[in-house]
Structure formats: C-alpha cells, structure tokens
Amino acid sequence: MSLPESICDDERYIGRLQEISSLNDIPREWRDSPIEKLICSENFGQKIEECKQPELLIATCIEFRYALPIPRMFAYVIRRASGRLVGSEFSLAYILSAGVRHFVLIGHNDCGMTKVLKKQDDLISALIEQGWPRDRAEDFIHSQSERHMMKDEIDGLRREYIRLRRLFKKVTIAPMFVDLADTKLFIPTWYNELAELDADLLSDKVLDIDLITM
Ligand SMILES: [Zn+2]
User: Fold this and answer.
1) Which of 81, 17, 64 is nearest to 43 (CA)?
2) In sequence order, what are the beta bridge partners of 74?
3) Does the domain at residues 7-111+150-202 carry the CATH identifier 2.40.50.140?
C-alpha cells in the first residue's frame, strides 16, 4: 500500500478543509492549549515537551500510514478503525477522571473504512482462518461493518464530533483532518458553525442510534 496523493490535489476534499499555515489560523478556543501544541508539532515542526500530567486525548484511525508526533507523558491515544469512539466510553471516563479536558479527533484521507462494505468477505475469511465458526464470523462482521463504515471521511468526522459534543459537554473537542501525504493537519470548514452551537442544539444533527453507546 502506498501513500495517497495530497488532499490538496484531490477534488473530493477541495473547499471542505481549511489550511493551518500560521498561528492565526488556529481557532481562538484552541489557543494556548494542548491542541495548539499538537498543531504546532505537525504543521510547524515544533517539539512537544513531556508534561507532568496527561493533557490531551487524541482519537484517530488505526491507519498504519499515520504516526503521531508526540512524546510520552503528553496524551492518551485511542486508535480505532475510522477513529470513531463508539464502545470506548469506559476509556473516556478514565481519561476524564485523570483531568483531561481537551480532545482531538483526527480523520484522514484514503480511509479503509470508506471501503469496508466491499471488504466484508475478506474480514469474514480472516476470522474463519483464526478458528471462528462461519455463522459467528458473518454475524459479527455484518453487524459491525455498518457501525464502522463511512461514506466519506469528512462527514464521518462530523458525525463523531457531534456525537461526542452531546456526550461530553464540558470538554473542548477539536476535529481535524490529516493529509497522509505530508501529515499536515487541516480544519473542516463546517467546524466554525458547529462550534458556536450549544451542545443541546446539536441534537437534531445526530442520529439517536449513534448516541447509544453502552
Ligand atoms: Zn482510516
């Protein structure tokens, strides 16, 4: 598998992401926070220093072509297929109890979860090869594929951002998108509008089935 072309050259992403090319491009509510440190590391090459306390949660996809630019003693990291945190609420409770109040969600281009419905047979075969009964493997993959698939990576990120805003109302959540070609972070253009909305007003923008998490 190779790296995809830059999102700047891919028409699917044109006009949907804002560049972060200077500190002025960072939203006010993210300044002087661990979110800003992560952006400065990815986009401006600044080194993140180790901290005494965990400062940040970074949630992103399992994607092997993306490595996070962080030292130890800085952030909790949850990596799951598509970066969705459904099913990770216990981990989130633990992270909140450790004092973390800043979350970063990072989507990426060329995500395998946009193609997962076509790959279901491969996933089922992989489990059968490990000794799973065929019917159990099929039930599992068919039921989980819907939950993890995305038609589009930027829309999938939006859906998860809204869901988490509703579930965790006193946390600053920063949705971003990484270009696998050079690991630069971008901000989805829908962010400003949604960030200003009260979490309770986001309720018509998320499916209730998405909110059921336990
Ligand atoms: Zn992915």
Assistant:
1) 17
2) none
3) no
Q: How far is the CA of 114 from the centre of ligand 1 (A)?
A: 8
Q: Report residue 16 as tokens.
A: 């949907």
* Digit-coded pLDDT (tens) for 141-154: 998 888 788 889 99
Q: How far is CA 114 from CA 12, 104, 119, 183, 209, in A?
A: 13, 21, 10, 20, 20
Please write the tens of the pLDDT for every residue from 32-88: 999 999 999 999 999 999 999 999 999 999 999 999 999 999 999 999 999 999 889
CA of 41 to the centre of ligand 1 (A): 21
Other CB atoms within 10 A of residue 19 CB:
13
Number of neighbouring beta carbons within 10 Å of residue 39: 24
Q: Tokens 């998490």 sit at which residue? A: 213
Token representation of residue 17: 């992401």
CB atoms within 10 A of CB 123: 17
Classify burial at 66, counting beta carbons within 10 Å of its beta carbon; exposed 0-12, middle 13-18, buried 19 or more. middle
Are residues 102 and 55 in contact, defined by beta-carbon separation less than 8 angstroms? yes
Question: Which residue has tokens 């969705």?
Answer: 84
Put simply, whether the predicted model's pTM sits higher than 0.90 gets the answer yes
For ligand 1, a single-atom ion, the residues with CB < 5 A are 61, 63, 111
How far, in Å, CA of 180 to CA of 169, rounded?
A: 30
